[in-house]
């Protein structure tokens, strides 16, 4: 009798759960979420190819140097690289003298104050220093950037899905709002001081287009023409390196381990055949 009662109780709860799931599924199907401007007009990153794509990819040091030049002349005014030290630039092909010269162009403010002027004193960085922040604090950063704090770019390509393609798409994606967007979502007009970019999550971005014209950065004679597209690719590659400076080592180690496992598997199989060759299965 007790078992029968327990069976009825279990059957009741099973039926209740089944009805709940079915009702929930019907409600979900019958009431889809209301469309939003962000959902309808946000675009996935563009397809772009780099030398470091794939398991055998590697960094193009000339491209990384061009990307560093774009960062230095365009991005560094607002964005920091707090996890990158000047001496890390040796991986890009710079020698010790060049690294010291690059570091010297980034004076570091010290906690001391010049008694004659009342301003913070500075010192020349050394290769072991990290890239200094462009602003003293977040308040100063927001005041200079339309109340938005520019993010640090050291790990940006790892912090975003399809990071390298995302950065490239964002830099080349500034445009006017589509008429269809304003027709369907009249309240989604980009506020004054912001900029429309369909590759940004909420479509409106405080950052103005940083790359505005071809030749904004001057490359060497033996380098590609510095078009907006080329500069965006180069700085995207550089920011991939800042986020994954040991990518090439990781890929090399992965290939070596895979090769070892293949050899080990073959040896193990041959040993198995030798040891059990005389045993009937």
UniProtKB/TrEMBL annotation:
The protein's UniProt keywords, in alphabetical order, are: Heme, Iron, Membrane, Metal-binding, Transmembrane, Transmembrane helix
The keyword Metal-binding appears for this protein: yes
Residues annotated as binding heme c: 75, 78-79, 207
UniProt-annotated location(s): Membrane
Q: Could you tell me the superkingdom of the organism this chain comes from?
A: Bacteria
In its UniProt entry, the species of origin is given as Sphingobium jiangsuense
Molecular function (GO) terms listed? electron transfer activity; heme binding; metal ion binding
Membrane-crossing residue ranges in chain numbering: 253-272
- Give me the comment on cofactor binding: Binds 1 heme c group covalently per subunit.
Q: Does the keyword rRNA-binding apply?
A: no
Pfam families attached to this UniProt entry: Cytochrom_C1
This one is known as Cytochrome c1
């Amino acid at each position: 009798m007790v078992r029968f009662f327990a069976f009825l109780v279990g059957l009741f709860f099973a039926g209740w759960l089944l009805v709940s799931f079915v009702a929930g599924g019907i409600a979900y199907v019958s009431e889809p979420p209301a469309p939003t401007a962000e959902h309808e007009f946000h675009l996935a990153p563009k397809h772009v190819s780099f030398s470091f794509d794939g398991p055998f990819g590697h960094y193009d040091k000339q491209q990384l140097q061009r990307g560093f030049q774009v960062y230095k002349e365009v991005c560094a005014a607002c964005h920091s690289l707090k996890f990158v030290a000047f001496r890390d630039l040796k991986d890009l092909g710079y020698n010790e003298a060049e690294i010291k010269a690059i570091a010297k162009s980034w004076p570091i403010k010290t906690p001391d104050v010049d008694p004659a002027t009342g301003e913070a004193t500075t010192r020349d960085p050394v290769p072991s220093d990290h890239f200094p922040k462009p602003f003293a604090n977040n308040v100063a950063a927001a005041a200079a950037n339309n109340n938005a704090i520019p993010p640090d770019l050291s790990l940006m390509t790892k912090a975003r899905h399809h990071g390298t393609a995302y950065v490239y798409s964002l830099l080349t994606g500034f445009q006017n709002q589509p008429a269809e967007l304003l027709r369907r979502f009249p309240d989604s007009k980009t506020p004054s001081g912001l900029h429309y970019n369909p590759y940004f999550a909420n479509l409106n971005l405080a950052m103005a287009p940083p790359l505005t014209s071809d030749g904004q950065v001057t490359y060497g004679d033996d380098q590609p023409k510095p078009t907006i597209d080329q500069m965006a690719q180069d700085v995207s590659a550089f920011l991939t390196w800042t986020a994954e400076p040991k990518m090439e080592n990781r890929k090399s180690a992965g290939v070596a381990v895979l090769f070892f496992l293949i050899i080990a598997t073959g040896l193990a199989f041959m040993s198995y055949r030798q040891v059990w060759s005389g045993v009937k299965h």
